[in-house]
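for the writeup, i need someone to sanity check this before i put it in the appendix. the sequnce is what the collaborator sent (i think, or maybe the updated version? ugh). structure was predicted straight from it, no edits. if anything looks off just tell me and ill rerun, i have time this weekend
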Amino acid sequence: MTHLLIAGHGRQKNGVFDPGATGLITKGEHRYVKEDLFPAMKKFLPKNHDLVFFDDYNVYSYGNIVSLAKKYNASQITEFHFDAAGATAKGGHVIIHSNYSPDKMDLALRDTIKSMVGTIYSHKGHAGVSGRNNLANVNRTANAGITYRLVELGFGTNKDNAKVLTEDVEIYAKKLVKTLTGTTNDKKPSASKPSKPKPSKPQSSKLIIDGSWGNATSELAQEVYGLKIVDGIVSGQPKNTNTKNIPSAKYGTSGSNLIKAMQAEFGVPAKYRDGKITYPSMLITNMQKHYGTPQDSKVSYPSMVIKEWQKALNKGKRK
């Protein structure tokens, strides 16, 4: 059996290249993992290891992660990414299906991440772990009974995290290899800097205006709205046509403080400010009215109204 390692993002099924998050690491997630992290990890591989590296294309887009696991006889899969949000967001985490508790490898990778960039989030009492049920590869592998985790190595938009990811990539890589295999070879990390961070872009380019209400959009919104918890997650949401198109939504019943704040900002009557995005949604309709986009009460993927909201957030405005 093997342990399949996947570089997130990359060439999509339609031929368009998806770089993933960028920030200070301007080449993007996919090229960073493919060109910097994976080569650094391969430098420290011990003999008779079971790791298989895959970076040919965007596995999410192709939708074939289960068949890849069978092809490479993989007993488990780890997919590598880095995060993007506001400049103050930092730390990494390990994402698993929300129904599961972390296994030993999940926690070992969490500890490695913590030693390099610190950690964020918590799941079932385990710091540095996130439970998700609205990510395609998380669900595909869970449905197939395949052990899977998605590793966020840190924030490419944070100066300190980006410095670690680039200038200390070989140190990080050697620790990851030791975590994944139990040992490494005798080679020592070099002082090479394969992808030196560049100066921060202006506030207006914090978010890519893509109409996707992902973690970066939620995190910046939480900052702009002045909320105490800035974690990039829209918590406590009902499962419906709208929330399935919101990648940062986490299903539950509690509602979200961010959504409550947005409901107040966009004029939802007080008695309906429950922190939940329903379908149809008064909040979404009011946002569409405000921005002059078609009023259908839907969050599409991508969404015209979310694009307009992202533009406002990049200017530090609530709406």
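Confidence is low (pLDDT under 50) at residues 195-205. The chain has two domains: 2-181, 203-314.
thx in advance!!
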